[in-house]
Amino acid sequence: MARKSGISEIFRDSKLIEDIKRKLPKLFQIAEIEASRAGKVGMEVGSVREKIIIALLIHKFGEEKVNVRLPITESESDVILDGKGISIKTITGNGGVKAVWTVDASKAREFIDNYEPKCDIILVKICWGTDDGGFFLIPLTVQEEILQLLGKENYLKMPKAGTNPRGVEFSKEALDKLLSHKNTLRIQLTWKKEKIDYDIYARWVDYWSGKSNLD
Hints:
By secondary structure, the protein is of the alpha+beta class. It has helices spanning 14-34, 45-61, 105-113, 140-150, 152-155, 172-180, 202-208; strands at residues 36-37, 40-41, 66-67, 79-81, 84-92, 98-100, 120-126, 134-138, 156-157, 168-170, 185-187. 36% of the residues lie in helices and 19% in strands. A hairpin with a 7-residue loop joins strand 7 (120-126) and strand 8 (134-138). The protein is globular.
């Protein structure tokens, strides 16, 4: 039988679902270790998590269907699968989810005024020590519905004047409605941290030592 295409196929693949449940919390824990300094997790953890999700897409659909070479001007899509853009977002706990990154108030205002969702969203909500959150697919149609219901001013949150929040966020009400919508797909995860013996420098030391296969 021919394999169905489209990102939602992940949620019909029982073996992959079990792999995500088993592996994703550990991989995201490693991402935090790689992005930590003096016990604090840096903002770069988001980029590491994004790479983990893109690697999952490549594993599932193959390199020929996954395009990561997006122009820098692309503000919403992080990866293209079968010609369709996908936005990848990750949050810890009840933190805010950025719709766009910008420190310019006028650009933030312009973004809200002209905003229209353009692609499906993969959102991973990390809730360490619980079974909350999970791996979500928020379809474009769901975003359009909630945006129409709430209106732009209630769907998106303008950065507070005089602060440096680095972007426009989805409102808490919008995010709650997006995640709880009947057409949003979810894989529930157990966010349990393990004792991991992981050396963030080992692969680079191996390269300098000539032990890596990069040569």
